[in-house]
Amino acid sequence: MTEVIDTAVTGWLARFERFDVVGSTNDVVAGWLREGTKEVCVAISDVQTSGRGRGDRTWEAPPGAALLLSIGFRPKWLDPEHAWRLAAIVTLTMAEACEIAAGLHAGRVQLKWPNDLVAIDSRSGEVRKLAGVLGETDGLGTKQARAVIGIGVNADWKPEDFPPELATSMTSLAELAPGQLIDREVIVHVFLEKLQKAVTKLRNGQFPADAWRARQLTNGVPVRLEWPDGRAETVSAMDVDTNSGALIVGELGGGGQQRTVLAGEIRHLRLGGIV
Ligand code: BTN
User: Fold this and answer.
1) For 107-183, where are the alpha helices, taking DSSP H only?
2) How confident is the model at residue 3 (pLDDT cuts 50, 70, 90)?
3) Does the Cβ of 132 fall within 6 Å of ligand 1?
4) Distance 116 CA to ligand 1 centre (A)
5) pLDDT in tens, 88-124
């Protein structure tokens, strides 16, 4: 990796450390916050031995292939009902950083509620996951509020190197921008530069609602929604609520009442079709 991250983009951080191997960068940053490290702090690792995804999933990536980082906040300045916006600004900022670093057009990287970065495969038209976000919070609404937002981006991960079980659901910047040098340092540089501005704005009560909403792939699309208790249902994803962060869903084919969904996972979606 080329060392392009300079203090101009890390100077605003209370702590910035990179590692060759850790268990999970989320755990590293959670430990820092417990010990008293101030916000905003960032840990990056080339490899994780026990990387975690949402819903008890593991998150694995070969050395050199992914950007694995976690960001620690002390969001006592943020209304607990808006804590979801920390993950949202991280997700949005990373989408922009990925496009710039890989030379992709603006909007190529989209968002899948709640916090996945996705892109549409140009051959099959299917939705593929580029990055996942794991947000973990503690003590929200108190002076000890802590939040760790971890993100794993499939960066220089060649499509032929994906394990077979991931090949049809995942993508990477290497796949989206063939022939382009994918340098994780450049992604981090652009990301931190933009994140500083986004955090300053959020501290001032400004959330980029339009940009977050505009990138949502699910608007107007039928989705298979899995609830935290394991139940699943097929609904029409109508919109996202930029105040609560909820997914707004309705019955397939219209009619019925719209509902807001605060927790759940979209397992399948098919653009322009039935899931
Ligand atoms: C998901 O899509 O299920 C979320 C994946 C989050 C993975 C990242 S990689 C960096 C950070 N450390 C972890 O253990 N998990 C997150």
Assistant:
1) 164-167, 173-176
2) low
3) yes
4) 10
5) 999 999 999 999 999 999 999 999 998 999 999 988 8
Q: Under a CB-based contact definition with an 8 Å cutoff, are residues 186 and 94 in contact?
A: no
- Atom 7 of ligand 1: nearest residue by CA position: 152
43 lines ligand 1 (CB under 6 A): no
Reported as a pLDDT band with limits 50, 70 and 90, residue 235 is: confident
The separation between CA 193 and the C-alpha centre of its own chain, rounded to angstroms, equals: 17
Model confidence, pTM? 0.93
Separation of 254 CA from ligand 1 center, angstroms?
Answer: 35
The residue nearest atom 11 of ligand 1, judged by CA position, is: 150
Q: Please, what is the end-to-end C-alpha distance for the chain in angstroms? A: 41
Structure tokens at 173: 């910047």
Distance between CA atoms of residues 144 and 180, nearest Å: 44
CA distances from residue 178 to 105, 124, 158, 159, 245 in whole angstroms, order as listed? 14, 17, 9, 10, 34
Name the residue among 31, 75, 72, 65 with its Cα closest to residue 45: 65
Looking at the predicted structure, is the pLDDT value of residue 254 above 80?
no
pLDDT value at 134 more than 50: yes
Distance 70 CA to ligand 1 centre (A): 8
Q: Give the distance (Å) from ligand 1 centre to CA of residue 117.
A: 12
132 CA from centroid of ligand 1 (Å): 6
Per the prediction, the chain carries an average pLDDT of 91
Q: 84 vs 31, 114, 225, 246, CA distance in Å?
A: 21, 9, 19, 10
